[in-house]
Write a structure and sequence with these properties.
This protein has 20 helices and 16 strands. With 669 residues, the chain is of the alpha/beta class. The N and C termini lie far apart (56 Å).
């Protein structure tokens, strides 16, 4: 007798236990993995072929009485016959968003949102050589949204160009992945991270079936998924599952990336209470459902604790009921928990202090120049920083410039207001400390070399980008280098290339996560979108003195633009493949060390190489300011003191954007 799912990669999955005395032979070309036989399909490109496997399960569906619990491993033979994997992995539960503005829809799934989502998408380059390297991409959007199946994350061309097996990994989001009812309860928190961990274990166990080498696996994350990647460095159970990592625009130690156990419990109980699932809120309907469930499970109601009853009640709610509560009143509530008994197995911060971290990983750290400009109109609407997406879409369609109404006009008072918002709402100091922290922020950004010269809007952009991403990431990169005593390859980059197709206002770009556009081969997969003029193309157009046919000129401009974007994309994909194979992305990358604490500037200029210093003077000041006031908050010694930079911080001077340490002509990075 065997157990199997009546399910396919291209259909809904319903877990059933069905006795069978027959064995269906696998289809020709199918491969055997944990769970059963699967069959991919071939994609043909001018330069070669790629085999695509979509929607492969790596764990049992986490719904019903598996909801909110750690992932459950697949049986060795979970289904009968062959699963034909032709439909992308489902997106995990989240609020469905359908905007009229493509800038939003670019990173949000439009369909196939389902609890049965613990699935993989895999793209395998068809080559004779075995033991291929693999790149596992973990998507991210604040642990609230996102999907491994977005078109942005399609790994087919990346697999072809990099020579690596590309794998997109799914995990549960929001309350479904990060609920917590206590260490002694069944809901122990960080289920989303455990989902990722189980996916990595499945990959290690099965990648050889796809021609891959489980000793050559790179995990890659941008934004919240970079938080996930760095979280795995602190989990003993993730050790050995990967040997390289690419960490872009985030780290688990960034100030906004984790919740305490107390906050995670509070959010979970609050949702449960609103849904009538806590002891004081249950109606007769909820009580009846709990009692019926307990009888079915053969358990005595009087011997079951309240946390279990709350869990059973939540498990019997519809996904729509839960989503409608979780996504409405507050943003960024359910995040990875910094202290648990299942993933970190202790305190993240104690591990960080003691350098209890995986020290056997090569890492590229990276960031985008203007990470959080896209959030400014949503956070600062009351400050005349608004964004009309309909107006922006109309301007794009008509080929005109950004509208003045979307320029985000801020003044110095607004800048001080943003500093106040960070002190009051993000740092969550008591009122006496809030004013002191605000004064410290204003002083740093009004006195540091570069930022004091910026416009209020640019200064706000720098403050938000530094505070939420840049400074913490630079700190973590230096921390990891020191923790490993320089024994591993560590690199850093800053992405500064403006996107030709980014629909957001130009003042926001280069913005968060748009480095993924060339890395996933977007210009090659969607050449029809690249029909805007680059500066180089405009100059060539202007130099033409006599042109007989305007249409010919326009076509030439488009061709120049597309050729460059595809070249840039090819270079980006090659770097990912190089690093995954050897731990070295390219010949002009400088390894991060005591001599060269620098990062490569990646921009649209392919004729010279530029470097920056990741940790700037204002970051040193900002990080010290945060630590100072966190310490004073704990000690309840509140009065503001003047904040001065110590002498040894002189080594961390700002690098002006126009000043380059090195300039090198190159052709084949």
């Amino acid at each position: 007798m065997s157990l199997f799912y009546v399910s396919f990669c291209n259909g809904d999955s319903t877990p059933t236990v069905t006795p069978t005395t027959t064995t269906t032979p696998p289809l020709p070309g199918a491969i055997k993995v944990r769970g059963g036989y699967i069959l991919g399909h071939n994609l043909t490109f001018p330069e070669g072929n790629v085999t695509e496997y979509l929607g492969i399960p790596f764990a049992q569906p986490p719904y019903g009485y598996h909801r909110f619990l750690p992932p459950k491993e697949l049986l060795e033979k979970q289904w009968e016959g062959t699963r034909e994997c032709k439909i992308l992995a489902k997106s995990c539960m989240q609020q469905f968003l359908n905007y009229s503005f493509e800038g939003h829809n670019y990173t949000h799934p439009r369909k196939d949102i389902n609890e049965d989502c613990l699935q993989l998408n895999i793209w395998v380059p068809v080559e004779k050589n075995e033991n291929k390297t693999s790149v596992v991409f973990i998507f991210g959007d604040s642990f609230l949204y996102g999907s491994p199946s977005l078109d942005l994350n399609n790994g087919s061309v990346l697999a072809l160009k990099s020579g690596a097996i590309i794998i997109n990994l799914n995990y549960r989001l929001s309350i479904f992945g990060f609920a917590y009812l206590g260490a002694d309860s069944m809901v122990k928190g960080n289920m989303g991270l455990l989902d990722q961990q189980m996916g990595l274990k499945w990959i290690n166990e099965n990648i050889d079936k796809f021609g891959g080498d489980n000793k050559s696996i790179t995990i890659y994350g941008s934004g919240a998924d970079a938080t996930s990647v760095t979280a795995h460095l602190f989990s003993n159970n993730s050790n050995g599952l990967f040997n390289r990592a690419i960490v872009a625009s985030g780290a688990i130690t960034n100030i906004w990336q984790t919740n305490t156990k107390e906050i995670a419990y509070y959010f979970t109980i609050t949702v449960a209470q609103i849904l009538n699932c806590t002891i004081g809120a249950r109606t007769s309907k909820e009580k009846e459902i709990i009692n019926i469930t307990l009888k079915y499970m053969g358990k005595d109601e009087n011997k079951v604790d309240e946390d279990t009853k709350t869990l059973l009640c939540l498990q019997n709610k519809t996904t729509d009921q839960i989503v409608s509560i979780v996504y409405e009143p507050k943003i960024y509530t359910f995040l990875p928990m910094d202290n648990d008994t299942v993933f970190f197995n202790g305190s993240l911060w104690e591990k960080y202090e003691n350098k209890t971290i995986n020290k056997d990983v090569d890492i590229i750290f990276g960031r985008t120049q203007d990470e959080l400009t896209y959030l400014m109109p949503f956070m600062l609407q009351h400050m005349n920083c608004t964004f009309n997406s309909t107006l922006q879409q109309e301007k794009i369609s008509s080929g005109k410039k950004d509208d003045e109404k979307n320029k985000c006009s801020l003044n110095e008072t607004d800048f001080e207001g943003v500093a106040d918002m960070i002190a009051e709402n993000v740092m969550d100091f008591n009122p006496l400390n809030t004013n002191g922290f605000k004064k410290g922020l204003i002083k740093i950004y009004n006195q540091t070399n570069i930022t004091k010269q910026l416009s209020p809007r640019a200064k706000v952009a720098r403050l938000m980008t530094d505070f939420f991403i840049h400074c913490g990431l630079a700190e973590f990169a230096e921390y990891y280098y020191n923790a490993t005593n320089g024994s591993r390859n560590v690199y850093f980059y800053e992405y500064r290339k403006r996107s030709v197709i980014n629909p957001w206002p130009k003042w926001m770009d280069p913005m968060h996560a748009w480095e993924l556009e060339p890395i996933f081969g977007y210009p090659i997969r969607h050449p029809e979108l690249y029909n805007k003029e680059t500066k180089e193309a405009k100059k060539k157009k202007q130099k033409r003195k006599k042109v007989e046919k305007t249409k010919t000129v326009e076509n030439n401009v488009k061709e120049v633009n597309l050729t460059f974007e595809q070249l840039f994309s090819n270079i980006s994909m090659k770097r990912v493949g190089n690093f995954s194979v050897s731990g070295v992305p390219g010949k002009f990358w400088r390894r991060y060390n005591d001599t060269y604490k620098i990062g490569l500037v990646i921009d649209g200029n392919l004729s010279e190489v530029k470097y920056i210093k990741p940790k700037l003077a204002r970051c040193v000041k900002l990080l010290k300011l945060i630590k100072k006031f966190e310490d004073s908050q704990r000690q309840m010694e509140i009065e503001y003191e003047e904040f001065e930079l110590e002498e040894d911080d002189d080594n961390y001077d700002d690098y002006p954007d126009e000043e380059d340490d090195y300039q090198v002509i190159y052709a084949d990075d």
